[in-house]
Amino acid sequence: MTTARWQAARNSAAEQKLRQAGVSPRTALLLANRGIEDAGQAEAFLTPSVSQLHDPFLLHGLDRAVARLVAARDRGERVAVVGDYDVDGVTATALLQVVFGSCGIDSHAILPHRLEEGYGFQPLHVERAKALDAKLIVTVDCGTSATRAVDCALEAGIDVVVTDHHLPGEELPAGTVLVNPRQSGCAYPFPDLAGVGLALKLAVGLAARLGRPLALDPLLRIACLGTIADLVPLLGENRVIAARGLATFGETRSVGLRALMDRAGVKLPLRASDVGFRLGPRLNAAGRLASPQSALELLLARDAKTAGALADQLESANRSRQEEEMRVVQEASALVTARAPLPPILLAWSEGWHKGVVGIAAGRLARELSRPTLLLAVEDGRAVGSGRSVPGVDLHELVRRFETRCERFGGHSQAIGLTVALPELEALRDDLEGAAAEVPPELLSRRHEYELTVPAAELGPELLAELSRLEPFGMGNPQPAIRVQGLRLVGEPRRFGQGHLSATAEGPEGEPVPLVGWRWAERAPDLAGNFEALGYLEEDSYRGEPVLRLTDVRPWQE
């Protein structure tokens, strides 16, 4: 039976104001929880439109970046686009290559090999740009802290435009154009764009400056993949990018996207969860285990045969990634749980781990153990890895205090990357545990937060339609969790697939409530007797009706 605490989500005084403006009570509560304060904001949230996108030239440095690209076109200079190996970096690279080509700019992509090169813009990428005879480097999703690489480029006579969304450190690259909404002096209205969102802004600004018509929907389809997969808040402009991009997938003529969707087994209409759990991991897989080149080539593919072969490669890589990830999760879990009591922050390392999967393994352990978690793969005397946090805990700020112990460090509040010399690891762990002792204990306790308490009789298509208006769900706009009381099982649960469970319960008045539990087969005994449930109301294509996807249950007495 559950040991997690159930907690109702907080809401604000804006809820009553929204109700008075004619918003339904449940939607008003959900919108208030998401920071919506008035009817105008509610309308914008519920009907995301490209008209809500801000002028790209509000970004500090974008005007200079566009001017340098126009000069490159006029002079016939070659441009090297240096990206990253994750979905955000690959989609940003693909987007810029397409737009640069349509604007008459000769561009070539340079993507890092995770195992051989590691993360970020580095001097070796400058050497590759020199070999291409490039006169300008444009980075996407990296470069804010790449002072050494920028210096190497300038010494080689290559100009640099950095577009990046990672948090700046104390030292910024000099002599370059920096487009980063988080840099000091940038008053851009929405600082939470993903790397591909900034690439989109640069593309739109360039096309506007050149007076070239730009079909926005195909770019939004690519941009929504990186935006959703990078776990940036799906609010503001990110919500527009995600919503519009997902809505137009049925119109795509991209053979690469069609092949990817086919291998992933997703159906239209596409949802953010399809990107997060199906499409994104497949695009990420190649870059996690080796080079992301095949993912980039898939997005740019022009014939179906090539696209199909590339999609098959990614499918195979994703299976290998899943196997490696599960092994790291099991071994890391054994290491960290051997300590009692569990420290407030978890740091573990091993020579046997693949550095391409330690980030997602850290994310899984962070969710399971309710602790910020850092996992690192050791090789040649140094440890390279990633960290993932829990809601309310700024992991970037925690690690930044001890940045001098790291050879490389960067990221966001909820996700970081770092490289540490092996002799520093134990001291870093001690430092982090001491700093994390300041974290309020309630942030490190297992808890399930729910937003609505709904009678069993109201778990139907009407409620599902109301909740669907808040899609796409993701960071900053979570799928609303629902609490349902007074349930009792009807018949025996049915087990299916890899440890999944399907069942039917009934409410206090005999109302049928279909249930599904992913990896819930072992928890079937928890459904005995009267119980209450937490879950998410979703469309079940198999049953053809709404179903409550379980997250937790506990005994219930009226």
Keywords, separated by commas or semicolons:
40% helix; 18 strands; 558 residues; alpha/beta; 18 helices
Can you tell me about this structure?
With 558 residues, the chain is an alpha/beta fold. Helix content is 40%, strand content 21%. The protein has 18 helices and 18 strands. The protein has helices at 14-20, 25-33, 39-46, 62-75, 87-102, 123-131, 147-155, 195-210, 216-229, 236-247, 255-264, 272-289, 293-300, 304-337, 358-369, 395-400, 425-436, 461-468; strands at residues 5-8, 78-82, 106-110, 134-140, 159-163, 177-179, 346-350, 373-379, 382-388, 408-411, 415-421, 447-450, 452-453, 482-496, 500-506, 512-517, 530-540, 545-555. Strands 3-2-4-5-6 form a five-stranded parallel beta sheet, sandwiched between helices. Helix 15 (358-369) links the parallel strand 7 and strand 8.
How would you describe the oligomerization state of the chains in this entry?
single chain
**Largest sheet composition:** 5 strands, parallel
Uncertain ranges? none
Beta-strand residue fraction: 15-25%
Annotation, overall tally of beta strands = 18
Q: Please give the radius of gyration in angstroms.
A: 24 Å
| Mean pLDDT across all amino acids | 94
Tell me the structural class.
Answer: alpha/beta
Tally of helical segments: 18
Morphology call = globular
Provide the spatial order of strands within the biggest beta sheet.
3-2-4-5-6
Distance between the termini: 19 Å
Helicity range: 25-40%
